[in-house]
Amino acid sequence: MAFAGRWETETQEGYDAFCKLLGIPDDVIEKGRDYKLITEVTQDGNTFSWTQIYPTNAKVTNNFTVGKECDMETIGGKKFKATVQMEGGKLCVTFPNYHHTSEICGGKLVETSKAGSVVLKRTSKKL
């Protein structure tokens, strides 16, 4: 149940390069650069509801059970099928253009998205 709670971005590294690689427009990158993304997670065993609230109050919720294929959605609205795995305490999933992991380190939510050599690392504090 370590993931459950409401989290707010404290720091992020590699944001601009990662967003550009995904083809996000410059004006959207600018708006989101200093935005304190809110992540809300509920967890019941291996079943999760994971919501991220973005600038302009856009939000995406993905519901999944570890080890089972599910329908997911990107912030851009692209729907895809994926299976979230738990590997060494990390939630891992492959999105259409990148691989994403989430873990709890020192009481913080650390999310890492990797596309080739470009890495976005976001660290959030619990609210």
TrEMBL record:
<keyword id="KW-0446">Lipid-binding</keyword>
<dbReference type="InterPro" id="IPR012674">
    <property type="entry name" value="Calycin"/>
</dbReference>
<dbReference type="Pfam" id="PF14651">
    <property type="entry name" value="Lipocalin_7"/>
</dbReference>
<keyword id="KW-0813">Transport</keyword>
<dbReference type="GO" id="GO:0008289">
    <property type="term" value="F:lipid binding"/>
</dbReference>
<dbReference type="InterPro" id="IPR031259">
    <property type="entry name" value="ILBP"/>
</dbReference>
<keyword id="KW-0963">Cytoplasm</keyword>
<dbReference type="GO" id="GO:0005737">
    <property type="term" value="C:cytoplasm"/>
</dbReference>
<protein>
    <recommendedName>
        <fullName>Fatty acid-binding protein, liver-type</fullName>
    </recommendedName>
</protein>
<comment type="similarity">
    <text>Belongs to the calycin superfamily. Fatty-acid binding protein (FABP) family.</text>
</comment>
<dbReference type="InterPro" id="IPR000463">
    <property type="entry name" value="Fatty_acid-bd"/>
</dbReference>
